[in-house]
Each structure stands twice: as C-alpha cells, then as structure tokens.
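Recap from last week: sequence in, structure out.
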Amino acid sequence: MPLRKKATAEEARAAAGLNGAEWHSFYRITREEARKVIEEYPDLSWTKTPAFVKTRVLNSVNVQLASEQAPAVELDIIMWRMATAIRDAQNWANRTARAHTVETPSPSLVLVENTGQRSTLPFDPVRDQQLEAQEKLPSASGS
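Predicted structure tokens:
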C-alpha cells in the first residue's frame, strides 16, 4: 500500500522498513539529493520535477543506502520525503542568498557631498541638531 502524503515521519520510517540509524542516514542522503536537484531546477517543486530526475534520485538514494548496508526504499517513500526536502532546500538557499546580498543605500538617504545642501532624509532630531551645530561652528580658515 503506498504511503499517504500526510503520513508522519514515524509512519514513513515504518513503511520503509528502516531502523533509527538507517532513517537518519536516509534523511541525510535525501537532504543532499534535494540540494543537487534545486541546483539543476531551482524553481521547481518536487511534484513538477521531471520523472527522469525522480528516478535518478531514487537510484542514487538506494545506492547510498546499500553502501551503508541499509535496505532500499520504494518510490512512494522518496516521493513523500523529497517533497519536504526540496521545499526545505529551496528555503535554505533563499535565506542564504538574502544573507549574502549586500544592499546599497537608497540615493535619497545619501547626503549630497560638497554642496552644503541636505538630502531628503527623514526627520531625525538628533542628527538634525548635530548638523545645525556643525553649520554654526566657525571654519578653520578664520572667516
């Protein structure tokens, strides 16, 4: 009987016939496979991923499980796990990309240099008071 989409992790583990250690390996392997898939198809969900990719993932996961002497899993287990793993990998990639994006200040927030004019910065009483005080100071040239 195929695993239902809303199955719990424990139900999926039991259906796959994996013990706790094997299930941990399965999660690690599928997390890495999900990262590989989103490198190739960054905007696709697992359900929209091409069938040949799903077959490739199934085979890769089972080869890696076999290398750890764990039983192979069926496609329904892969389908259940990869839907979540792909979504999580995409969210992780998006958060990482946002964290590494350097934002430049808006031109309206940058003071106009060498004109003596202020830009259209929002009201800031502390900053405005400091700027007024600087304008009132006598210049170093003695004028």
